[in-house]
């Protein structure tokens, strides 16, 4: 969610901050703002509802002075409407201190009443404004100490950036529960919510940990805990390139990321299945411990949850282990049965998903071992897990996840094979058979992407429908869920994914000539069942789009449109079936004129509950 950028250095802060802020637009936002200190240490703040271009137009009508320190922000509304008044930065009444904030302050109402009694006047509906007033009340000449005292009074999750006219050469940062990084330059330093914002400026970063704060100046960065003790922070070098966070000629990041999937999966195979031998470096859990696992719980949200559902089918099929899959946001609110023989698999692209982190902490408190499937090095999830399986998909800028999803699926296949080996539930012949088919996936992806013109035609022919139903069975039931989610996210067309066998238990009432029904029906042991479902839809005049196996001649008699995928082991079909569904969602959204990379109301990383 919300994007934070801060700068202190030798360059003019305003244009630099706006440039970096644009690279965080993918996180989702509804307003933006800028705060700087001019050469006389006067605090100047500009804020605007809507896109960053609105803020740029506002600033363009002014004559901003040179400034070497500032903070910038994109807001995703939680407390208060999306408007100029509620946009960040927020300042104290004396206009000495300005704050940008990502997260939710749970005790803001109590703090607000207390501060009002101290004479503070509030002009916004936000929880963030409390922070600015609180720091101001506690300030006695030492900005770091005032921030330190303020943040220990805050309950909830937050990442903040603070500047003060009394300390024109300083930028203060602090975090707990929300991501924040420090970028180290030469004669300049940065804070940011995510790496792509500053990747063109520096590749040396410090990932602030929960309960840490930092004081940045032009030449120095000091890190402290919330008690004021100085900490030796680890400096890391970003491995991915600037070009990986750019469009490289594609119309949208989402389309680029769909096309990156062959290379990503190929890289994962080379790293994890070199020579046909499984390498799960980072797992951190021995085969002996894996063999003792009695139950697996997968926790994830959104697209990652759908990957976890596929993981359930994989692990139960080849490792013969019972798997529960929970949406992270609900996990804490049921009394899950967990003990030391429970393995929890947490899946998150960003590694900062608040609900998933909370689920992990709940699982750890009850004795579970934690394995993270994650795409972000240095994330909170990575630090809190016993085992780390990085998917190395590179930065995913499009809000609707594509390449991270298929990378998560691939990691579940690797993990399923590992568990099966440790538990001795797979024969060498079956292992070799699956590995052989997995190694074909990158070429299958290239083949599918060459057929995108056919998918475009089908998308164009169906973009007018006001409702879509996605149906799948067995291992492709989650594919139906994910296909529907992709369409909902970026086209805003109501779409529902169902287990096809559930159609007669309610969803069939939706079927008529005004609905499109997408059926995932590759060759499998439930193929005939899917054919029966398709015939029921046709009998009710539903418009049928089928994802089927190459060489299946029968399916054309039952469908209005057929998208074909290569023949592969039934257990692996989710890896292939999702590619045309990603493309179809993309083309329908483009046809309808939507903002594909930044769909309304959505954020890339959900860092608040």
Chain-wise SSE layout:
Layout: E1 3-8, H1 13-22, E2 31-37, E3 43-49, H2 52-60, E4 69-75, E5 90-91, E6 97-105, H3 108-117, H4 128-138, H5 143-151, E7 156-164, E8 167-176, E9 181-184, E10 189-192, E11 204-207, E12 212-216, E13 221-225, E14 230-231, E15 236-237, H6 253-259, H7 261-272, H8 287-292, E16 295-300, H9 302-318, E17 322-327, H10 328-331, E18 342-348, H11 354-365, E19 369-374, H12 380-384, E20 387-390, H13 403-423, H14 428-438, H15 441-450, H16 452-462, E21 468-472, H17 477-491, E22 495-499, E23 516-521, H18 527-539, E24 543-549, E25 561-565, H19 573-591
Parallel strand pairs: 16-17, 16-18, 18-19, 19-20, 21-22, 21-23, 23-24, 24-25
Antiparallel strand pairs: 1-4, 1-10, 2-3, 2-4, 5-6, 6-7, 7-8, 8-12, 9-10, 9-11, 11-15, 12-13, 13-14
Give a description of the structure.
The protein is globular. It is α/β, with parallel strands linked by helices and 609 residues long. The model has no long low-confidence stretch (mean pLDDT 91). The chain starts with a strand and ends in an 18-residue tail after the last helix. 35% of the residues lie in helices and 23% in strands. Strands 3-2-4-1-10-9-11-15 form an eight-stranded antiparallel β-sheet, with helices on one face. It is built from 19 helices and 25 strands. Helix 16 crosses helix 19. Strand 23, helix 18 (527-539) and strand 24 (543-549) form a beta-alpha-beta unit.
Compact overview of the structure:
The protein is of the alpha/beta class and 609 residues long. The protein contains 19 helices and 25 strands.
């Amino acid at each position: 969610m919300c994007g934070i950028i801060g700068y202190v250095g030798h360059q003019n802060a305003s244009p630099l901050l706006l440039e970096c802020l644009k690279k965080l637009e993918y996180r989702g936002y509804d307003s933006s703002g800028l705060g700087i200190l001019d050469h006389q240490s006067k605090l100047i703040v500009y804020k605007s509802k809507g896109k960053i271009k609105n803020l740029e137009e506002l600033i363009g009508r002014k004559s901003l002075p040179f400034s070497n320190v500032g903070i910038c922000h994109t807001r995703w509304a939680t407390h208060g409407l999306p408007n100029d008044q509620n946009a960040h930065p927020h300042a104290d009444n004396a206009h000495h201190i300005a704050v940008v904030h990502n997260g939710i302050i749970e005790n803001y109402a109590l703090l607000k009443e207390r501060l009002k009694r101290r004479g503070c006047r509030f002009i916004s509906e936000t929880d963030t404004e409390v922070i600015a007033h609180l720091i101001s009340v506690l300030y006695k000449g030492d900005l770091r100490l005032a921030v330190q005292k303020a943040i220990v009074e805050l309950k909830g999750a937050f990442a903040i950036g603070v500047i003060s006219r009394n300390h024109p050469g300083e930028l203060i940062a602090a975090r707990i529960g929300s991501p924040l990084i420090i970028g180290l330059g030469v004669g300049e330093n940065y804070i940011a919510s995510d790496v792509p914002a500053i990747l063109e400026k520096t590749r040396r970063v410090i990932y602030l940990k929960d309960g840490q704060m930092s004081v940045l100046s032009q030449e120095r960065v000091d890190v402290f805990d919330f008690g004021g003790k100085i900490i030796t922070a680890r400096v890391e070098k970003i491995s991915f390139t600037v070009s990986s966070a750019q469009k490289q000629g594609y119309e949208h990041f989402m389309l680029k990321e769909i096309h990156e999937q062959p290379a990503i999966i190929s890289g994962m195979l080379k790293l994890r299945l070199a020579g046909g031998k499984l390498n799960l470096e980072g797992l951190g859990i021995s085969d002996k411990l894996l063999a003792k696992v009695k139950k697996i719980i997968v926790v994830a949200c959104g697209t990652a949850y759908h990957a976890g559902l596929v993981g359930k089918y994989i692990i139960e099929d080849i490792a013969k282990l019972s798997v529960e899959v929970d949406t992270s946001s609900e996990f804490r609110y049921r009394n899950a049965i967990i003990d030391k023989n429970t393995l929890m698999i947490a899946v998150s692209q960003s590694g900062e998903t608040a609900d998933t982190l909370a689920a992990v902490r709940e699982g750890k408190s009850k004795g579970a071992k934690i394995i993270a499937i994650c795409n972000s090095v240095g994330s909170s999830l990575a630090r809190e897990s016993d085992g780390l399986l990085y998917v190395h998909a590179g930065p995913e800028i499009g809000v609707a996840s594509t390449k991270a999803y298929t990378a998560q699926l691939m990691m579940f296949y690797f993990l399923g094979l590992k568990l099966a080996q440790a538990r001795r539930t797979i024969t060498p012949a079956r292992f070799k058979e699956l590995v052989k088919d997995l190694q074909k996936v990158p070429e299958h992806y290239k083949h599918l992407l060459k057929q995108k013109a056919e998918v475009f035609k089908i998308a164009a022919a169906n973009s007018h429908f006001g409702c879509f139903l996605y149906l799948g069975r067995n291992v492709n039931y989650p594919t139906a869920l994910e296909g529907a989610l992709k369409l909902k996210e970026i086209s805003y067309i109501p779409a529902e994914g169902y287990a096809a066998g559930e159609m007669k238990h309610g969803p069939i009432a939706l079927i008529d000539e005004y609905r499109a029904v997408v059926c995932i029906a590759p060759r499998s042991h439930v193929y005939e069942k899917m054919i029966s479902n398709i015939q029921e839809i046709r009998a009710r005049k539903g418009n049928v789009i089928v994802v089927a196996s190459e060489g299946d001649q029968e399916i054309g008699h039952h469908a209005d449109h057929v998208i074909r995928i290569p023949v592969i082991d039934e257990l692996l079909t989710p890896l292939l079936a999702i590619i045309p569904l990603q493309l179809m969602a993309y083309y329908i959204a483009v046809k309808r004129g939507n903002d594909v990379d930044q769909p309304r109301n959505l954020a890339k990383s959900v860092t608040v509950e």
